[in-house]
Structures are given as structure tokens and as C-alpha cells.
From TrEMBL:
Positions bound to substrate: 29-31, 44, 87
Family: Belongs to the radical SAM superfamily. 7-carboxy-7-deazaguanine synthase family.
Domain spans labelled Radical SAM core: 35-225
Self-association state and partner proteins as the record states: Homodimer.
Sorted UniProt keywords: 4Fe-4S, Iron, Iron-sulfur, Lyase, Magnesium, Metal-binding, Queuosine biosynthesis, S-adenosyl-L-methionine
PROSITE patterns, A to Z: RADICAL_SAM
Pathway as given in its UniProt record: Purine metabolism; 7-cyano-7-deazaguanine biosynthesis
Cofactor dependency: Mg(2+); S-adenosyl-L-methionine; [4Fe-4S] cluster
Protein name, UniProt field: 7-carboxy-7-deazaguanine synthase
Amino acids binding [4Fe-4S] cluster: 48, 52, 55
Length: 229
């Protein structure tokens, strides 16, 4: 079925409110943030209104398939993992993502949400651990940061800043200080693969005694960024 005809069916369907457009659901190891290393089911929602220059999931911008939320829950359950990560794209670009998050929490999973920081997170179920980006200048999307989101962060959430240059690092350092980010939740600094030497970023953090957590994306070390890993 073509994308256009699928959308038309969905819009007219009485069960439209129970569906989401999904790029992939897969079972792997969480490669970053607080739940790093845990076996995790990833639910990747289709679509993103941003275009970060270093984006590594451009394949999620278009396409995908409509899935009923019940079917998503059944597939997640089939993998027998305690952790579920809802990601994208930008998952919050589909409003029904909020329903999926709530249903996953109700089912007893440890649920995380990877979000760009450009869309409002206020209505996300408080049981969900938000991993929220702040976009540094070299992403090309820094103007999209929705700063009011900082007021909706809970202690179990995480702010992630992806750093592609020394200028990005200095911007990130300034943002952490200006907003006392480390007092709100964990702050993660992550180098852009191929743009900043990880060791260089680590040494900057040490030299400046920053209250942030350095991270490398474990899945890239393990699988060299293969899709579905
Ligand atoms: S917000 Fe995420 S998915 Fe969207 S363009 Fe940026 S990195 Fe890619």
C-alpha cells in the first residue's frame, strides 16, 4: 500500500487514535544515557521536523508503517526485555506517542524517550525517563531548542548535548553553567562520530572540571552504527 493511501485509510479509520507510524522495532543493547548496557527494545517512530547536519537516523524521516499500539506492545513483549526506548526521528512529532509511553509504563517497563528538545515535553508521563537533547550550534538546529522544556525535567531525566567542535563544547559549557543543568538532572556530553576526537572532549571536560558525564555511543563501538542495532 502506498504511503498516501495508508494515510488516507488511517485518517478515516475509527481506530486511527490507536495507531503510530513506525520505522522499526528492534531488540538490542542500549548504547547511551543512564540505561547504557541494558538489553532494550527500541521503538523508532517515523518522522522528524528537524534536520541536524550530523543526524545518523535520516532513514526514519519518511516511510514507515502504521502499527496499532496494541500490536506495538505485543511485539515489544515478544522480546522479553525490561527496558524499552521510544526514539525516532522525533517521537513526539506524533501526538499519540504520549499514549504509547503511558501504555508502556502501565505494562511495567522501564521506559525511556529520546527527544530532540524542540517539542514540548510537558505532557510526557512522569514515569518515563526523558533523554532530551539540547542542540549545539554545529547541528544547524540550535534555534529550535525549546528552553521552557528545562522546567519539565525530573531528576531521573537526562539532558544530552552532542558536540561536533570546540565551539560546540564552549556553547555547551556555557549552557550548563547558565541553567545550572546539573542541579536539574544528569547532563551528558557526547562527541559527534568523526568530528571530535573522544579523547579530546574527555580532556576538555577534565580540564574545566565540568559536572557532566562523558559518553560514547556503545552501539557504534559494537556494530559501527548498523541499522537495527
Ligand atoms: S532531531 Fe534527531 S532524528 Fe531529528 S534530525 Fe536531529 S538527530 Fe536526526
Amino acid at each position: 500500500m502506498s504511503e498516501a493511501s495508508t494515510s488516507a485509510v488511517d485518517a478515516a479509520s475509527p481506530v486511527a487514535a490507536e495507531r503510530l507510524r513506525i520505522t522499526e522495532i528492534f531488540h538490542s543493547i542500549q548504547g547511551e544515557a543512564d540505561a547504557i548496557g541494558w538489553r532494550t527494545v527500541f521503538v523508532r517512530l517515523t518522522g522528524c521536523p528537524l534536520r541536524c547536519v550530523w543526524c545518523d537516523t535520516e532513514y526514519s524521516f519518511h516511510g514507515g508503517q502504521w502499527h496499532a499500539i496494541d500490536a506495538i506492545l505485543a511485539e515489544v513483549a515478544s522480546h522479553g526485555a525490561r527496558h524499552v526506548c521510544v526514539t525516532g526521528g522525533e517521537p513526539l512529532a506524533q501526538k499519540r506517542c504520549l499514549v504509547l509511553l503511558q501504555r508502556l509504563c502501565d505494562a511495567g517497563y522501564e521506559v525511556s524517550l529520546e527527544t530532540s528538545g524542540a517539542l514540548d515535553v510537558a505532557a510526557v508521563d512522569p514515569r518515563v525517563r526523558k533523554v532530551m537533547d539540547l542542540k549545539a550550534p554545529d547541528s544547524g538546529e540550535s534555534a529550535r531548542n525549546l528552553w521552557s522544556n528545562l522546567d519539565h525535567l525530573l531528576p531521573h531525566d537526562q539532558v544530552k548535548i552532542v558536540i561536533a567542535s570546540r565551539a560546540d563544547y564552549e556553547w555547551a559549557r556555557g549552557v550548563v553553567a547558565e541553567h545550572a543543568l546539573e542541579q536539574r538532572c544528569m547532563v551528558l556530553f557526547s562527541p559527534v562520530w568523526g568530528k571530535v576526537e573522544p579523547r579530546e572532549l574527555a580532556e576538555w571536560i577534565i580540564a574545566d572540571k565540568l559536572p557532566v558525564r562523558f559518553q560514547l555511543q556503545l552501539h557504534k563501538l559494537l556494530w559501527n552504527d548498523a541499522r537495527g542495532k
